[in-house]
Hints:
single chain; alpha+beta; Double Stranded RNA Binding Domain; 3 domains; 5-stranded mixed sheet; elongated
Amino acid sequence: MMLAFFLSCATLSPYLAAPAQNPHPSCAPSTHYQGIGKGETPQESISDAHRQISEQISSSIQAERELIKTYTELQVSRGKELKSSSESSSKLRSLILTETHFEHNDLIRDVIAPISYKGTYHTLSCLNKKEATEVILEDLAPALGQLNNICAAAQNHASAGDLEAFATSYQQINPLVGKVIPELYVVRSLNKEASNTEKELRGQLELIENHAAQLRASLSLGLFFDETDLKEADQQQILDALRHSMESLGLNTLDGAEGCGEALSHQVRLSAFSSCEKGPVGHLCQPTLKLTITSCQSNNKSSIGIANKHFSGQDYHSANRALQKALSKADAALFIEDLHRGLASIVPLPSL
């Protein structure tokens, strides 16, 4: 009898009937999200209340996204996105726009249990913004600690002028940033301002990006052909494509035939072969390309092999025409992924 009376009421609590005018003391609007759920069953009313809270958070995140999107478009219209100093902000904006979601619905509390009123169940559920913030930051603590350590190591490598060690740390940062920044932006959306954790991390990342941009700008890669069976004109076509690829990654390129000198930081030896074969369908050429990169400072060497399946040509009658069809595909876009993958271990490159 007591339970039946509790679940079915003649009048609806003012906390449920007019929550804006009568906020529940455990669910103050300034510190909580709240949802007034309705449903044909108790569980339906709870689910409805939780959904309302999730939608409010999603709306808040979307509002922050729109501010970021508007700012990005404004920066682009002013031409500022092309500046190296903006790379960190641009990268973070991309993560925020695509990866930010609230995934902590387990923190929503049912403050008023479902009550039956005029055939419908009503309930009040709330999410404490401070509690949600603390849980998110606690969950992020291991990744944040690891990220802070890598950033500190990267700064030490930059100060010591150790390019390859800095590049290694730089590449380790990106996956962790992809996990951390969207969650920190949920915290920002909950509290309508950036947390101290986010501010400190942004400062570190901006510093790292500035180091990376300065290091890239200081490099000059000297390209030259060492071994090849290609004609000089065909060699030039590949050289031009490689130069455009490297320049799109923020790297300077020069002629490296004279060897390391004051103008070069790295010498890049190119080996390219036509790799043509005749088969039942005619002549097939799939040129192979290898880059051997030598640091002019440390003499360390690394190699990049490019064997893109799209870098091919076929002609039934002529091997030369098959080769020319393959070489006609040599452009910056064809080589950039292989170059990025190979160079990222020795040069701090931005993400593609």
